[in-house]
Amino acid sequence: MQAKTIFNLLLVPALFAFFYMLRVVTEGSPIDVWLPKWHTLFIIGSMIALERLYTYKYAVSQRHVLARDVASTLVNIYVSAAITGMLLLPLLAPAVQFLFGHQKVFSSPAELGPLWLQIPLILIVVSFVRYWIHRWQHSNAFLWKLHSYHHSVTDLKGSNTYVSHPIDWALRNAVIFILLGLVGFDPQAILLAVPASAVSGIFSHCGADVKGGLLNYVFVTPEVHRWHHAADVPEGHKYSVNYGVEFSFWDMLFGTFHLPEKDGVPEQPERIGHPAGLKDETNYIRLLLAPFGLYRPLSFKRVVGES
């Protein structure tokens, strides 16, 4: 095996490990006060740089939607989760107190087991819930209206990782973590588990020509996630494939995994985009209004393949 091939196969796990350690080791550092969420911005910036070094053969320029990408990214990183917490916590916290007699479902983290058990438990629960929420966002008519603009992008790029309607993004990325905090897991377990989930979810949108290798069957790598965004829904599937946000084994378990190979090499879709031809909206305000009928896009229709 050529040295270049070996390096390419090692690049993805090395980046996963680096980004994860960056999140864990620097959590609570002085830079967090100066620039909150800087880890996420750094990862996105690294992905953009990587896209310049490893050009993807089907790459499509996203410069014409750069302003929309920046606006959506900043809103979803800094605003969406905060507002979701402000709206849900005043409702959920009293309910937990009423039902269980204390502020958390489990009054002591020790009730959930040792730290080494809580970490994989968090990862399994979070990834399972996000898989089914994501799948529901494709099958439910209104949720698809919210989610469809995330599928109008014509290429996966670090810059459009956070291109989603804020409500759509919050349902998939914020609600489960708010509930996680109310359960009563050990804060140290959350600190160690959540970055692993976040890194995989963000990196799945990397537009560089990087190879996942065996990691394709564990994590949602770019090679796996491109099929989820394919303009043509793979035959035999209804709305899409590869619904996992961080791990691909849920798709394998529930029959929605798709990663065809030719001569042992994963194939990639030639076209990425909305399955019904919805154009990639450049105006962020229109993106917010369209699901509520306040702006009429080309089509919200879902393409349904063979069942």
Task: Explain what this protein looks like in three dimensions.
A two-stranded antiparallel ribbon has the order 1-2. By secondary structure, the protein is mainly α. The chain is globular, with a radius of gyration of 19 Å. Helix 4 packs across helix 7. Helices cover 53% and strands 1% of the residues. The protein has 12 helices and 2 strands. It has one domain.
Please provide the ordered H/E string of secondary-structure elements.
HHHHHHHHHHHEEH
As a percent range, the share of helical residues equals: 40-55%
Return the structural class. mainly alpha
What is the count of helical runs? 12
Strand order of the largest sheet: 1-2
Radius of gyration: 19 Å
Low-confidence stretches: none
Biggest β-sheet description: 2 strands, antiparallel
Task: Give the distance, in angstroms, between the N- and C-terminal Cα atoms.
Answer: 40 Å
Q: Which assembly state applies to the chains in this document?
A: single chain
Tell me, briefly, the overall form: globular
Strand content: under 5%
Strand tally: 2
Number of separate structural domains: 1
